[in-house]
Amino acid sequence: MAINLYLAKHYAPNLYPTNAKDEALTHQWSVWAISEIEPLQMQIVIQKFFIPTEKQDQAVVDSATKSLSRPLSVLDQSLEGREHLIDDHFQIADLNVASVMLLLRAVKVDLTEFKNVSQWLDRCHSRPALKRAQAL
């Protein structure tokens, strides 16, 4: 996150907020993603991708998936009536949070309950730069 924030601030000014309030919100959302989503997501990823099938613990997956409801609800409410996390265009906060959440789709976490999150992720994950990076 620190590297993304630095690079955006110094080399991609169109992605970086132009005022202190939005900069603080950008840092807040970025830290939120790595503290609220990523640890639960990684419990699922570890079970599904790094532990042999016969040793996987479905209870860990179920618990982490259930626990994701709280932060996903927060994000869903924050995105109500909005296209992006901050301001009216895609910025580094969107990039950081959506990047953390790439793995949720890889492990097939059901986001249908979180309509705003799902639509926002579709917008973020369909950006041409991500498509190019995934092709590498």
Please describe the structure with a list of short key phrases separated by commas or semicolons:
69% helix, Glutathione S-transferase Yfyf (Class Pi), Chain A, domain 2, globular, 136 residues, single chain, mainly alpha
As a percent range, the share of strand residues is: under 5%
Overall shape: globular
In total, the number of domains comes to: 1
* Average residue-wise pLDDT: 95
Q: Please mark out the parts with pLDDT under 50 across 5 or more consecutive residues, or reply none.
A: none
CATH C-level category: Mainly Alpha
Compute the number of strand runs: 0
Radius of gyration: 16 Å
Q: Figure out the total of helices.
A: 8
Distance between the termini: 21 Å
Largest sheet: none
Helix content: 55-70%
Listing every helix as H and every strand as E from the N terminus to the C terminus, the arrangement reads: HHHHHHHH
Give the second-level CATH assignment, the architecture: Up-down Bundle
- SS-based class: mainly alpha
Description:
The protein has 136 residues and is an all-alpha fold. It contains eight helices and no strands. Helix 2 (20-50) packs antiparallel against helix 3 and helix 2 (20-50) packs parallel to helix 5. The two termini are 21 Å apart.
